[in-house]
Amino acid sequence: MVALHHSLFTTLFLSFQFLYPTSAQDFPPGFHPGADGPASEATKGFWINHTGLNVRNLTASKAFYGSVLGMRHIFTIDYTDHFSLTYMGFSQGGRNGTGFQTGEELRRIKNNAGGMIKLLHFSASESAAAVPTERTTTLSNLGLVVPDLQEAENWFERHGVKIVKKRGVDTLAGDSDVAVSFNIGPESTSNQTEVEELVKGLQTTDFGNVVFIEDPDGNLLEVIEQNGF
Questions:
Q1: InterPro entries, from UniProt (predicted)?
Q2: What predicted TM-score, i.e. pTM, was given to this entire model?
């Protein structure tokens, strides 16, 4: 029993140390803490409310963000017979299955919510493939926090989600989708030496405990554990 208590205390202490480093030596090399002063009064009340994504197949995207990631359908507007806008979001009252809110409740607080997804669907583009398939914007990835990374990865696998990088992999190929999302893919001016240096840096921030997945349109989602870096 004493050994169990000691082990539990050690685990909690190490976790606390990782989340709340006690000195500059506990941070990874190259870490620079923010030192901004108060924001301008003119920006009071500003925050990122949602991310808009063009999608080819609305049904597939709603299934991914809803059934796989747990977002709730807030509303859809059919502006024309071919163009629609759909909002999806997590219940704002709690995380990990708590604080359930209906679509109507989420709609009422839409402009006070955060982390929502707006799906823009032009049905005529499904056969014409009008949605760009190459990296044409500065979007790198969306970020998803989960309570247990391994359980989340298992869940993704059971639902046929494309996993670009699995848990435990702490290397990065220069031509991988993750490298492209970091803007160091084969189309960039970076060379292999720079990629190798980046990998060394990523490994200091527990890159092995990060999972990358793709949504139905190839957008990357970085999945990290709640108590991760």
A1: Glyas_Bleomycin-R_OHBP_Dase, Glyas_Fos-R_dOase_dom, Glyoxalase_1_CS, VOC_core
A2: 0.74
Query: Dihedrals φ, ψ of 228, to 5°?
Result: -80, -175
pLDDT in tens, 42-92: 878 778 888 999 999 999 999 999 999 999 999 999 998 889 999 999 887
Neighbours of 155 (CB within 10 A): 15
Task: Please state whether beta strands 163-165 and 83-89 pair in parallel, antiparallel, or not at all (unpaired).
Answer: unpaired
| Lowest-pLDDT choice from 88-92, 150-154, 169-173 | 169-173
Are 149 and 209 a contacting pair, CB within 8 Å?
Answer: yes
- Dihedral of alpha carbons 209, 215, 220, 225, sign: negative
Count of residues making up the chain? 229
What structural domains and CATH numbers belong to the chain? 49-130 (3.10.180.10), 132-228 (3.10.180)
Strand order in the sheet with 83-89: 50-55, 116-122, 83-89, 72-78
Measured distance CA(117)–CA(121) in Å, rounded: 13
Strands annotated E in the chain:
50-55, 72-78, 83-89, 116-122, 142-146, 163-165, 210-214, 220-225
DSSP-derived 3-state class of residue 72: strand
